[in-house]
Design goal:
single chain; alpha+beta; Rossmann fold; 3 domains; 6-stranded antiparallel sheet; 6-stranded mixed sheet; 9 helices; about 25% helix; globular
Length: about 375
């Protein structure tokens, strides 16, 4: 598992170190602060480790820069620690360098690096299968094709790939469908029924959920459920050890976001199946309630990443736990707060109603519109 990641010279990441990485990591911040750049840097790093030594395009380098360094620290399943560095440069004639524990793996045999070559090769093969899912994704009508296409990270051919995965000769691909993806929809928190890909000769591929009484085409379900199918299907079929997701909250209501977080947790807890680590960029206040939360900001054109101490936050990722004191509520990013249900009931307000805050010396009153109007009405009007 990647435990630390350092980037210098990549787009807005002039000099950025991200520490204490865990199975699930949340990067939260405003638009255009560099959250996607973090995920892109991770993708470039993993691609170089998997054998792609081509230099990135010049616009990937920080403004005015000619060098780029991506460095990761890993802990192997056996407990061994590995330091991996990838160096890029725009200088002609100088190729990409991959350095493991101080040794250039392309110019010398992998000896003296602190781990065996067999261990290193197994580590690279299992740990650097990376898949990034962009924010632009949607299910579409898919016609039958003559040849199976690679999995599209935007989801354009997910229905077709799910169909072939369900009947694949590859046992790992069948396992991804039947043991990883299908239980997510049949069991809580979704409990929608059995996810089933269907097709007819020469016709379109489709998806439906089946219960004991009926089958429901996915198109007849809400956009939020379709997004859950997209995300979970892309993750399961990619079989990547490391997944990066941009804005998983897209099109999802607050309750559905909670379900998605639980799905992510269930996925990384399955030790016998990938993914083993997930990186998420998000704008949703709900996603900051996780033990490994990073605030991303832009300062003088440079991206800064700060790990937010989480001792005072909820420490479970499957749901937002109310504070032990029922009179309290957690304060999220951008000063967002969820009112306890008894407060909503006491105020007599509904969704869309105005809630007023009236300062009074050393305290603030929370009022509905009617009570606020009564308290602030001029005395001459009362008369």
């Amino acid at each position: 598992m990647l435990t630390e990641f350092h980037v210098s010279g990549f787009k807005s990441l002039y000099d950025c170190t991200i520490t204490d990485l865990q199975p699930i990591n949340i990067f939260h911040g405003d638009n255009n602060v560099g959250k996607s750049n973090i995920l892109e840097a991770l993708e470039l790093f993993c691609r170089a480790l998997k054998g792609d030594r081509s230099n990135p395009s010049t616009d990937s380098f920080s403004w005015g820069g000619t060098k780029m360094v991506l460095r990761g620290q890993f802990v192997l399943p056996e407990g061994e620690q590995v330091d991996v560095k990838v160096r890029f440069t725009t200088a002609p004639g100088i190729g990409t360098k991959v350095i493991v524990n101080g040794i250039d793996v392309d110019s010398r045999a992998a000896i003296g690096i602190g781990i065996s070559r067999e261990s290193l090769m197994k580590f690279i093969d299992s740990s650097f299968r990376f898949y990034r899912i962009p924010a632009r994704r949607r299910l579409e009508i898919e016609q039958e094709t003559q040849a199976e296409q690679p999995l599209d990270p935007e989801g354009a051919n997910l229905k077709e790939r799910l169909f072939w995965a369900s009947v694949s000769q590859d046992p790992e691909e069948r396992k991804a469908f039947y043991n990883v993806l299908r239980p997510l929809f049949a069991e809580p928190p979704l409990a929608l029924g059995t996810l089933q890909p269907v097709a007819s000769p020469g016709g379109p591929y489709d998806l439906q959920t089946e219960t004991a009484t009926r089958s429901i085409p996915l198109e007849q379900m809400g956009s939020g459920i379709q997004q859950l199918v997209l995300l979970s299907g892309l993750i399961a079929l990619s079989r990547a050890a490391v997944i990066a997701i941009e804005e998983p909250e897209m099109n999802l209501s607050w309750p559905t976001q909670k379900k998605l977080r639980l799905i992510f947790q269930q996925m990384v807890e399955q030790q016998d199946a990938p993914p083993h680590q997930i990186f998420i960029s998000s704008h949703s206040p709900l996603f900051e309630f996780h033990e490994n939360f990073y605030r991303v900001a832009m300062v003088d054109g440079h991206t800064q990443v700060t790990r937010v101490a989480n001792a005072e936050r909820c420490r479970m990722f499957d749901r937002v736990i109310p504070p032990s004191d029922k009179r309290a509520a957690w304060l999220h990013e951008e000063n967002v707060v969820m009112l306890p249900s008894y407060v909503v009931k006491t105020l007599g307000v509904e969704q869309g109603d105005l809630v007023y805050f009236l300062p009074q010396e050393d305290r603030v009153l929370m009022l509905n519109e009617e009570d606020f109007t009564d308290l602030t009405r001029p005395e001459d009007e009362e008369a």
